[in-house]
Structures are given as structure tokens and as C-alpha cells.
What we know:
3 domains, 33% helix, elongated, TIM Barrel
Amino acid sequence: MTLFWPDVSAFQGDIAMTGAPAVAIKVTEGTSWVSPWYTTQAARAKAAGAFQMAYHFLHSGNPSGQAAFAHARAGGTPLMLDCEPAGASRPSISDAERFIDAYRAGGGVCALLYLPRWYWSQLGSPSLSGFTRRGVALWSSSYTTYTDASDGAGWLPYGGMTPRIWQYTSSHSWNGQLVDFNGFKGTLDALRALAGGSGPPPGPPADGTEPVIRQGDSGPAVSKGQGRLNVHGAAPALAVDAQFGPRTDKETRLFQTSRALVVDGIIGPDTWTALNRPAAPVPPRPAPPAATGDGKWHGAYVCGGMFDLHGLAAKLGYPPNALIRMTATHFGSLGDAFGDHVGGVFKGEIPWDHPVPKGVVLWCD
């Protein structure tokens, strides 16, 4: 059995859905556009008894923000992710994977990916194994004569995946308009199951719960990351504003450096695991030597081998990584003995409670 059905957008307006076993309706694009006809078209689909899917047109960048935006409009309706270029936007495979992870983490259903072979080729013909691991079905596009034969243009594999749905025309005459039409070799129940993600279990987001996030993203996961960076000593503390900007990127890289992680500014599984651990307690230490200059806890200090980084930083009222950054900023580098010491601490070769070498000058301001 083969099903044939349309996908529609705002271009079709108030189109009748009579005769459609299923329909995919565009709901959102990027983080700001909502189809003004989505509600009407969804009502038409319901009245016609058609199985309804929504779809989101993906833009490059901020996939988690787009996921939250789309889910707020599509709700529990199964979503197809439309990944293709438009203007200056060229969404990547990573954008699509991160959108799906974030959409699912927010409670949405997204198990279909529309990714035309021609755009996949433009992206460098990458592996699509990440979608296979997530239980996502591939929806192809090839405007040729439809056939159920496995050697039909829309059924040929690419990226390690075999398409399950084929959009074979953009100009099928249906209910008085020219629309995209699609084929699926299976029953309506099978299509429902496919759109609902009944395939292999989806790959988990980072650390089992959080999606991978990086500069340009926004949303609850970013707020959590900013809060955890603050717990681990971001100084000055980050504004927990759900916007992954340059400062959050910088603090992420500093945190990754301090934990001997890959320093890429991306909060993925390993970084989430480290962030979610309790912050190391700061043990009490003897009073620091007298400050130079104004007698307050500001300015240069000579450690004289008396303090470790935790102890000295605690007495000065700063986390250790803030003390290190202030020293590097003031003197222009972390060179010589202190640089060697800090590097050893970050690599795990020198314990945190090992005294800072004698004669090393730190700066606190």
C-alpha cells in the first residue's frame, strides 16, 4: 500500500483538505515567524479526518531557541524538521541534530527530517548516522516520476540512511491549487507510528537531560549552564539570562580549561557532567601576608610558598580561577614559575593544595 498526501504552507492559505489521508502543515520558521494560516489549515485537516503533522523551517544558528519557539506553537502535534537553505541561512547537520534534541527535551515529538539530497550534497555529503541513532526518519525530495521501485530517485540512500518518505513533486494539482505531494510505502497507521518516533530510541541529550548548547543558543538549558558556571566560580558572576553570549562562551572555555576538558566553548556531555558536580569546598587557611599599597585586600601579593590557590583565594574573597585570571590580566600572562604551577594544576599533575612557589607574585583587584 502506498499513501500520497500534501504538505502545505501559508502560500496555500485556506485550502480544503478533502481527500488527504495525511497532511504536513508549516507552523513556524526560525525564531520569529508563525504561519498566519496554521490554525485554519489544522482545523481543515481535522474536519477532513486527515492525520496532521506540523513542520518547522530550520534556520542556521540557535537551534534550541528555534525548538522552544516551534514547540510553543505546535504543541503535541508530531513535527517534521525542514532542513534546507533560504537566503543567507544554511542550516547545518549539527543545527538539525541540536534542534531535535532540544525539541524532545522540551517534551515535543520530532521524528521526521526533510533534508533533500541536493542540499545534503552541498553540505559536503556528511554522515547522517546521528539521525539514525535518534530514531529519525529521512524525508527526501526529488521531483521526478514517482515509483514504488527501490531504485526510484527518491528512495535511493544517502548519508547512510534510506528515505522513508519521498516528496516527488512541488506542483501537484489538488483542491484547486498546486502543492507539494509526497509518497509513503505503508499504511496510515505505519505513517502515524513513523511520525511519532516509534523507531529506535532517540539518542539522549547531554548528560541524559540537557541538550548540547553553545554561543548563539538560548533557552532554559542555557540558564542552567550559566547558573552552574557561577557555582563553579565565574567571576564576575554571569547574568542568568538564557542567552549564550560571548561572556558565557568565555567562562565555559575557562571552566573547560580548569577541568582538562576539550576547550571548545560547547557545553556537551563531558562539560555538563563536570558542571553538575558539586563545587569543590574551600578549606580554611592561615591569614595572608600583608597587602602592598593601601593595606586593603587589593594589589600584589607575594605568596612566599605559604598558600595554595584555594586558601589564598578564599582569604581574598575570590574563587581560585578569578584570582588566576586577574593575575594574568594585570601582568599580561601567566609566565614563568606561576604559569608552570597553574598549568600543572589544570593538567592534574599538581594538587590544588600544593603551595604556590616562593616568590610568585599574584594580583587581586
